[in-house]
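Q: Got a minute? One more chain.
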Amino acid sequence: MPTEHAELQLADGRRMAWTEYGRGDGQPILFFHGGNDSRLAGGLIAESARQVGVRLICPDRPGFGASTFQPRRRLLDWPTDVTQLVDHLGIETFVVLGHSGGGPHALACAHAMPSRIKAAATVSSPAPPPASNRGMHPMFRAVNMLFRSQTLYRPMARSQLRQMTKSEDRWLRVWSMMQPADGVLFDRRPDVARGIVAEMAEGARPGIDGIVHEAALYHKDWGFDVSGITSPTHVWHGRLDRQAAPAWAEYLATAIPGARLTWVEDGGHFSTLIEHSHTILKALTEPAPN
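A: Always. Here it is, folded:
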């Protein structure tokens, strides 16, 4: 069972919210949700966290869910927030795991906090702008171009949110058409499909400012070079992911020294995380090889 929603007032006065899943006495893993999601995304892998014995700490990023929006935020501002959270919780070293848009945030922490990050992992993550978008669905390619301009993306983000809340079933059908591997999961596990919609709705509850601002961050200079990351790094990616281009995983695995790339041959954007969460969490709790 998750902890109750918890909040911390940060040094600049903003509010940071998080929820915990798994085991309170387990190895701490900070799970960073995707770019249209929320802290409740941790619930999608909560059972695996419990089975593996992980303390899964899932914060809302600024402007998502119950965390205060941060104007002019950069990727490298996130490690500052994370430092305050783990200090508040009395955690010295920990693992970071980022799904989708959470991936760049996990890598930012690995870059900025090398002495505290035991391992970093991305699942279905974007890569820095030089990476190719080979393998991306044409619709997602068009949306990604809009991400770069908050002015252009804002109306689309508002429309997508309205469609999701107005007709959940239609939104899931459209997503499944663009991401057939996720559609297979949704057909087999309708509870998972509903859980994704619910956690995304929570992410957008305060509005779309956080979503729109963050989308632009993936497509501009990240502010750090991933080749400088020294923490053991895992890259998981679905071969059938049509939103996060498989070429992005190849870029990260090549650019990050010693990164280990794991392909999920039948994996989509959400299904890679959800159906393989036990394996992912177990790998992140194992001692690093000598």
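A: The first strand starts at residue 6 and ends at 9.
Q: Perfect, thanks.
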